[in-house]
């Protein structure tokens, strides 16, 4: 017969183990974040890929959401995608900074702790969306499916265009949008930019400076050059320098365009190092608008050399020819002047509206006086 004295110690030990385990689990969960952030982020990414599979299946079965509940689910899934991408970028950025020793160890731990916690919280949301997505898939699968509509052929890839044709295609797209046919006046300048951007080979320059007075259309030109058909690159980034260029803000703008998060606690020099390392093996086009003074691109974090066989190029705009020359050095500069009278009137008509101009016989002449007063710099109007 087993005595109570031999059973009691076993019960006590079991209770102690149970209590310690219950206490330790949440402690380990919290304090394990910095040391386990990578696994947590990867688990989130893996689980999110399942959610993406569901989105793809639903896109086929129910391309137009058939219920408000499904619409809400799709919106939450889209928001979840942005959050997952943000967590991934933060983790990659902190890892890069930590390896380079640019951030104090305690700050690295603090950032990793926050990333691990956010990854766990987002993981629960993803799992919940997946569980509800299974129900939506069953409903969509049981519903009658419409006859698929033939998809029109896409325009030919940019490689099949010469630069003049590509410029025309980009301008046609812009003209069909908010700009109207007056934007066609930009074709010579846009073609020049495309000649520069799409030129490759060992002798290709790396910097193009575009100069002209305010209102000549320099910013519009860069927006047109941002079209993804221009070149197949890792990144095409449009950033504004401005009159009092803040290097830190410029770095943030470039980093945002390349899916990189720069820790605000880093110095400008260390941020430049992180940005440079991020872009070193990438092909990119940097469109730098409204530059008033010379800036050292390398100090910003732009890897050199530009051009000369590297698919890394910069197009910048300035009101000053001297600034463009100092930035381009061995590169190229072009001047943007005013529009001719015919193109200026066409652009003016697009912006004001032909109905307004023709509403009174005096208006066309007044319009021409406005254009003459602005020296045909219609982007000022």
UniProtKB/TrEMBL annotation:
The keyword Transmembrane helix applies. SUPFAM superfamilies: P-loop containing nucleoside triphosphate hydrolases. Residues 203-356 form the NB-ARC domain. This is NB-ARC domain-containing protein. It comes from the Eukaryota. Pfam families: NB-ARC. The chain crosses the membrane at residues 6-24. One of its GO terms (molecular function) is ADP binding. Keywords: Membrane, Transmembrane, Transmembrane helix. InterPro entries: NB-ARC (IPR002182), P-loop_NTPase (IPR027417), Plant_NBS-LRR (IPR050905). The keyword NADP does not apply.
């Amino acid at each position: 017969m087993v005595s109570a004295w031999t059973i009691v110690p076993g019960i006590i030990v079991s209770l102690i183990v149970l209590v310690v385990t219950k206490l330790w689990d949440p402690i380990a969960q919290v304090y394990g974040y910095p040391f386990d952030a990578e696994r947590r982020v990867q688990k989130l990414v893996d689980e999110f890929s399942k959610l993406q599979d569901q989105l793809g299946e639903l896109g086929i079965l129910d391309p137009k959401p058939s219920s408000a509940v499904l619409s809400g689910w799709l919106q939450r899934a889209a928001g979840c995608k942005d959050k997952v991408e943000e967590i991934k970028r933060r983790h990659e950025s902190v890892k890069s900074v930590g390896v380079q020793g640019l951030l104090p160890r305690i700050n690295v731990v603090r950032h990793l702790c926050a990333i691990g916690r956010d990854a766990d919280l987002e993981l629960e949301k993803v799992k919940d969306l997946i569980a509800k997505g299974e129900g939506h898939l069953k409903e969509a699968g049981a519903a009658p499916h419409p006859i698929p509509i033939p998809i029109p052929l896409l325009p030919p890839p940019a490689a099949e265009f010469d630069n003049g044709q590509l410029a025309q295609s980009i301008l046609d797209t812009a003209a069909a949008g908010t700009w109207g046919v007056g934007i066609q006046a930009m074709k010579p300048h846009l073609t020049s930019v495309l000649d520069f951007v799409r030129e490759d080979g060992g002798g290709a320059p790396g910097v193009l400076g575009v100069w002209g007075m305010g209102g000549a259309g320099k910013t519009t030109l860069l927006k047109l050059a941002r079209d993804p058909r221009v070149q197949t690159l890792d990144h095409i980034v449009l950033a504004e320098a401005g009159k009092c260029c803040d290097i830190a803000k410029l770095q943030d703008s470039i980093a945002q365009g390349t899916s990189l998060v720069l820790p605000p606690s880093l110095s400008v020099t260390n941020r430049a190092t992180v940005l440079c390392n991020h872009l070193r093996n990438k092909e990119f086009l940097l469109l730098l608008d409204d530059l008033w003074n010379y800036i050292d691109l390398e100090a910003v974090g732009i890897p050199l050399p530009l051009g000369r066989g590297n698919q890394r190029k910069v197009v910048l705009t300035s009101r000053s020819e001297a600034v463009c020359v100092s930035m381009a050095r061995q590169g190229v500069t072009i001047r943007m002047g005013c529009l001719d009278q015919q193109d200026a009137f066409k652009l003016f008509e697009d912006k004001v509206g032909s109905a307004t101009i023709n509403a009174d016989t005096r208006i066309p002449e007044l319009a021409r006086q406005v254009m003459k007063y602005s020296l045909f710099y219609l982007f000022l109007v």
